[in-house]
């Protein structure tokens, strides 16, 4: 790999980035991209990684030689060493923290901290999976659990599958707060409506609450449309020090604050099924960014199941605990709603190849740049472009959470 060029002269940071601690470099997202997504039968996961990485680098306008940091998870025996080798990179800062779907928000937080502290200058995050194609070609089977070793040995013999854990938590919320199946179904309906304006979404046809309720039961109370789709796809995000901002092809999106948290592995160790670790990661991220939930213009939330969206909205502070059911009604999550959520269609309709968290960051950046397209672009009440976004990923069965607050450059 060619040696990195001298770091460009520092730019005058935009107002939204002034919250960084004194003496630390500000961090921007310079490039984002998707690989081919949806139904991708002829590519390997490595190829999707490479495709997304090339596109994100092109989106940034920077040369690959600036990359001195790399983060990836989920592929290879020595992830991310194998993926970095495949991409022809020789990073001096590396991370492969894997905590399920929240992995990418956690990795973004780590990368931003490393750049701010001067340990790296440009960190590439990249993901790719052919989960759908592999099952179709019988190269693998669907996973019902994460294994039977360690603490999980006390649950697996009883048939407590991954989806059953989410379903049990949803039932608890329904029992405790009166949340209804119709309210949960509204999340799936609005996600599909948002997906209709996204040409990259896997499912774009409209659905109704009745469609959701009438679907085949997967794990009570979840019918099929309460659950995320299975797709192929990949994406990449390039984070850089503020010094590179003058050389970017597009306006930067600034990392204002982040937070991470873990909760439990064994369900018996989960204190409250109605509270996710986003209650901690969100509080930390907003405090570090110096903003309040009420100031956020749009949210990208991990949605493997409809209940995940609902409880995360509560835990991030967009509504009070127990009020998520009422909050998601009346189109509040639509692109032109009170709080646009998963504006690409999310994992329920657009793309979910496995650990979807990196896709949340891609969509948030595109919205803040104003490049989501005329039918999908979010606008503030005054007609102006969005200024603040939050991406919140969830891993395992509410085991982990990573939340990142982003600001428009």
Automatic annotation (TrEMBL):
Biased composition (Low complexity): 9-23
Region (Disordered), start-end ranges: 1-23
InterPro entries assigned: Thiolase (IPR002155), Thiolase-like (IPR016039), Thiolase_C_2 (IPR055140)
Organism listed in the record: Streptomyces sirii
Gene3D superfamilies: 3.40.47.10
Residue stretches making up the Thiolase C-terminal domain: 259-408
PANTHER family recorded: ACETYL-COA C-ACETYLTRANSFERASE, NON-SPECIFIC LIPID-TRANSFER PROTEIN-LIKE 2
Coiled coil segments of this chain: none
The protein's name in its UniProt record: Acetyl-CoA acetyltransferase
């Amino acid at each position: 790999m060619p040696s990195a060029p001298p770091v460009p002269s520092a730019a005058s940071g935009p107002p939204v980035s002034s919250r960084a601690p004194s003496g630390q470099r500000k961090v921007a997202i310079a490039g984002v991209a998707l690989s081919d997504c949806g139904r991708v039968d002829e590519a390997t996961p490595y190829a999707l990684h490479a495709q997304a990485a090339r596109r994100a680098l092109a989106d940034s306008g920077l040369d690959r030689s600036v990359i001195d940091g790399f983060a990836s998870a989920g592929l290879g025996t020595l992830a991310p060493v194998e993926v970095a080798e495949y991409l022809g990179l020789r990073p001096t800062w590396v991370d492969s923290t894997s905590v399920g779907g929240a992995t990418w928000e956690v990795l973004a937080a780590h990368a931003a901290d490393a750049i701010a502290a001067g340990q790296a200058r440009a960190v590439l995050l990249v993901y790719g999976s052919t989960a759908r194609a592999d099952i179709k070609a019988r190269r693998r089977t669907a996973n019902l659990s994460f294994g039977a070793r360690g603490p999980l040995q006390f649950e697996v013999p009883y048939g407590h599958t991954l989806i059953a854990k989410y379903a049990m938590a949803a039932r608890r919320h329904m029992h405790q707060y009166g949340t209804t199946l119709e309210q949960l179904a509204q999340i799936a309906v609005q996600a599909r409506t948002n997906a209709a304006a996204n040409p990259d979404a896997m499912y774009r046809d409209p659905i109704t609450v009745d469609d959701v309720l009438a679907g085949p039961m997967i794990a009570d109370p979840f019918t099929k449309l309460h659950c995320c789709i299975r797709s192929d796809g990949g994406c990449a995000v390039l984070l850089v020090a503020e010094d590179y901002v003058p050389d970017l092809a597009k306006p930067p999106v600034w990392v204002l604050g982040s937070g991470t948290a873990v909760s439990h592995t064994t369900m018996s160790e989960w204190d409250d099924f109605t509270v996710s670790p986003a209650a901690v990661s969100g509080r930390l991220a907003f405090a570090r960014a110096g903003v309040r939930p009420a100031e956020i213009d749009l949210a990208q939330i991990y949605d493997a199941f409809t209940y995940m969206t609902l409880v995360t909205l509560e835990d991030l502070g967009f509504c009070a605990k127990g009020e998520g059911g009422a909050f998601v009604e009346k189109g509040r999550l639509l692109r032109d709603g009170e709080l646009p959520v998963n504006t690409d269609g999310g994992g329920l309709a657009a793309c979910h190849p496995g650990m979807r968290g990196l896709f949340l960051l891609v969509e948030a950046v595109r919205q803040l740049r104003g490049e989501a397209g005329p039918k999908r672009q979010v606008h503030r009440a005054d007609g102006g472009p969005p200024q603040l976004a939050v991406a919140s990923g969830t891993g395992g069965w509410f085991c982990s959470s990573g939340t990142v607050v982003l600001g428009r450059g």
